[in-house]
Amino acid sequence: MYRWWTKDYSPLDGRLKCLVYLILFAFGWDGLIHASLEFVERCPDPMFQPAGAMQWIGLLGLERSQVIAMIRGLQPVLTVSWLCAAVGIFGRTPLLVTGIVAAFFYGCQQSCMGTGHGWHLPVGTLLICGLLVRNDHWSVDAWIAERWNAWPWDPRKQRSPDLSPLARKLILVVAIHTLFAGGITKLVQSGLAWMDGVPLMFYLNHHNHPSTPLGEWLLHFLQDRPGVVQGLAIGTVVMELLFLGALFWPRWRWPLVLCACGFHVGIYLVMHPKFFEQMTVYLLIVPWEGMMAMSGLQRLRVMTGFASPPAPRRLDELPHPWTQRAAMSVTLALFIGLGGSLIAQREWFPLTHIPMYATYTSETSIGGIPREDFQSLPSLAKLTAETEVDELPWWTKYELGDRLTLMAWDDEGVEPISLGSQFPRHVVHPFLWCQRASFALLQDLRDAGKASNPSARFQTVANSLREAILNQPEWRTYERFDFCLARDSGPPTILHSIYR
Length: 500
What we know:
Layout: H1 2-6, H2 14-42, H3 56-59, H4 64-87, H5 93-111, H6 120-132, H7 140-147, H8 164-190, H9 198-206, H10 213-223, H11 226-242, H12 253-270, H13 276-281, H14 296-303, H15 321-344, E1 365-366, E2 369-370, H16 377-386, H17 396-403, E3 404-410, E4 417-418, H18 430-448, H19 456-463, H20 466-470, E5 478-485, E6 493-499
Antiparallel strand pairs: 1-2, 3-4, 3-5, 5-6
Helix pairs in contact: 2-4, 2-5, 4-5, 5-6, 6-8, 8-11, 8-15, 10-12, 11-12, 16-18, 17-18, 18-19
């Protein structure tokens, strides 16, 4: 079974591992190592809610300040271990430490951001490599051992089996899940209707974030061409579903990965998510072996799927039978976890069904719910009475969160001043605000069973921003701040007030 499962991958070349680790480190320096500390420091205590497996933080009684201290202490550890793992020194320990600490940092981000999947595959890759990969002759350990025979981490003297072909296969499984699950979730939540292009056009109009002149041009080009957008919507779902074929047919891997990279680059140009880290991991799942010895035309045929890649180099000897059984047990557990989260349509860190952009949205409705229902407390109360809060469409938290805005009154108290264009990014991460504030308000309305003033949850979330709001230099002339539920027309509903 083990031989069959790993037959389509060669052992991981130390040069390829070094390249992938160094590129991930370049992205992770800001995106993981330092961003994790920034997210937790900026997150108010009531909004820091350990996600999924990170709930061990609460079980140990750790507070946010203690988590911040842990991250600060582990930042140099992760930096050093990551670089050591890249160049292959001190054996497998740096690989394992990098995987574990990176997973902890990513879990902290998820606990105080509310959403995000950009580092899902890269962190999973670091963890899988930490558990299964060892240094080979392309490593600093091997270079030192050739000159000093007593070097304790000599790769030639390692007793642990080479499980890197299995590692590459498991990384492929996680990569497939991040795309295939996205396609399945779109069909589960929206049906085939998602491919009519209306939801994608809605997201392009309301959730765009072009970061380059090319992105600006591409956004306007797409907004003016609904037919092109519908074609992209169909192509997206088809590509995501077909990615499952990469598990069974190695010939599909190159063309599917190239399609996925085009998909990720397009998202980067016109929207918020960035998946350069995930694209880096794809280097580990495409069949590189033998490619360099080919002619340019032969390489092109392999990369476009018109020719099979060269046969992978096989291991000289298989791991011990008990090691093979343990490895296949880990594989089965991974399939159960990933498949379970997809079937249940639930996120429980680190498991996810990739719900991003899966909601069928239009200018008039969100997942079949009229958009005007998000503008009044009675409508929201009725909505929560009919549906569990965590079963509402994925876009609910953004539709409602964007309406939960802030208004200020000066000392004369004559006319309110809308701070909607400045709030919440001045005081808290916008995604976190949308997630926590909208969930708190909906849960309050569900528990109360009536559309009166919201109860403790929303007030707690709002009050957690009190100090940050009052200390904003440009807002110090204001005497009162109102958290409001905005409407398209008419006065907003005041939910909670903060006084100086």
